[in-house]
Design a protein that fits this description.
Blueprint (H helix, E strand, L loop, with lengths): L1 H22 L10 H16 L6 E2 L2 E2 L6 H13 L3 H27 L2 H13 L14 H41 L10 H35 L6 H12 L7 H26 L1 H17 L12 H8 L4 H29 L8 H8 L5 H18 L12 H18 L1
Antiparallel strand pairs: 1-2
Length: 417
């Protein structure tokens, strides 16, 4: 236990800072925000009606959002009474968990207690947590947690798949050497080889479990905020294609992710379809997803690049380091890509040209979290910039990536100094 505290004591520090930031005077402010008030009223209706399938508001069916956050609030209302504290508690807990997850992820990536602590504290103290996020009763805080969780699970799956591939490649090389040296005998494939084979199988299984967890997190994100919950999918696709990670993920693994996602998100949507038909989909998806993406329904003064100054303003005081962190990460990613292409050109003689993909894949670094963070930030920013209707809280899912990039940059600057 003492050894654990010595190595991971910083995690308790992150927990303390995040708990204070999220829970201190959580219910002191009255419910004033429009969305927060509506979601609270819907949860109260859910308790009073006893209808946990169809949300209701002001006497009519409420088709705007999925019910996961509404279920949480309704359950807390029944257990602890109806007040602002219970309405906001799920998001506050989501904020604490997001801070801890980002800190733990940073630790697994960099093995630096300073960087891990800094990343968690940035998430817990950035300005966006105070509005429409972790200290209010809307749904965006939970969405941020599930998006972060899904991408963490994807990173772990790719990491385990790479480790398993490396191990089986070593096994093949070892057996090939035995043949070459004429020392291989059938009986030599004994317990140690079987143990390594079983270890490889365990890692493949663990990869599948991480992808199943990724699918579950995306499914919960969909049940929190509809199509916005699918945000991890284009990030994962871009990362898999640009880093070559897709070569390590089998079709069966992808099916596991998809099936778990559907198993989590589909039942409520099917129930609502059975109860309300296309009326539900016209409002739920047609108006609140398609219309918001293609037309300016709110905030008409927001121009195309409105998110850039908004991001710099809302991410204070850490925004000053975000731009150099992004630039340096982009330069390093470009340098790594040029190195891989250069090696590909040197190695890909006419006799080895058919192995171009293999050369490119093997020359890539095992850990691609830097690329994932960059894509996470850029894909999220690009998608919501393209959408016509803009709100500052739409960017909340990218802030954990920004926190990790800034923490890495500040740690590097500290080491240089």
């Amino acid at each position: 236990m003492r050894r654990w505290f010595k190595t991971h004591g910083w995690l308790i520090g992150v927990l303390a800072v995040a708990s204070f930031a999220m829970l201190f005077r959580l219910g002191a402010q009255p419910i004033q925000n429009w969305d927060e008030g509506i979601h609270g009223a819907v949860s109260i209706d859910m308790v009073e009606r006893g209808d946990w399938v169809t949300p209701w508001y002001a006497g009519g069916a409420y088709f705007r959002k999925p019910p996961l956050k509404l279920w949480m609030s309704a359950g807390l209302f029944e257990a602890f009474g109806i007040n602002a504290w219970t309405l906001r508690l799920p998001n506050a807990i989501a904020g604490i968990l997001t801070s801890l997850l980002v800190a733990w992820w940073m630790w697994q990536w960099r093995r630096s207690r300073w960087e891990a602590f800094l990343a968690g504290v940035i998430v817990a103290t950035m300005r966006p947590i105070f509005f429409h996020a972790f200290r209010t009763g809307e749904m965006d805080g939970l969405l941020t947690l599930f998006t972060t969780g899904a991408l963490y699970c994807w990173w772990k799956a790719v990491h385990d798949a790479a480790a398993a591939e490396h191990e089986i490649r070593n096994q093949k090389s070892e057996i090939r050497n035995k043949f070459k040296n004429r020392m291989f005998k059938f009986w030599s494939f004994g317990h140690s080889d079987l143990f390594r084979a079983s270890s490889f199988g365990f890692r493949i299984s663990r990869c599948e479990w991480w992808l199943a967890a990724c699918g579950a997190a995306i499914g919960l994100a969909v049940m929190t905020k509809s199509a916005a919950g699918l945000l991890p999918l284009p990030i994962i696709a871009a990362h898999a294609l640009l880093t070559g990670a897709w070569r390590r993920i089998r079709i069966r693994d992808v099916l596991v992710l998809v099936l778990v996602l559907v198993a989590v998100a589909a039942p409520w949507h099917l129930a609502m379809t059975a109860l309300h038909g296309m009326t539900f989909w016209n409002d739920y998806f047609g108006w609140h997803v398609v219309k918001r993406a293609t037309e300016v329904l709110h905030n008409p003064t927001a121009g195309t690049w409105w998110y850039l100054p908004t991001l710099m303003r809302k991410f204070s005081p850490y925004a000053w380091w975000l731009l150099p962190a992004l630039v340096i990460k982009f330069i390093l990613s470009g340098a790594e890509a040029k190195r891989r292409i250069s090696q590909l050109r040197m190695d890909a003689t006419p006799s080895t040209a058919s192995r171009a993909g293999e050369i490119l894949r093997r020359s890539a670094p095992q850990d691609k979290l830097g690329a994932l963070l960059l894509l996470w930030f850029l894909v999220t920013l690009a998608l919501f910039t393209i959408a016509k209707t803009k709100f500052e809280w739409y960017l909340l899912p990218l802030y954990p990536a920004a926190a990790m990039l800034v923490a890495e940059f500040l740690a590097a600057a500290r080491n240089v100094a």
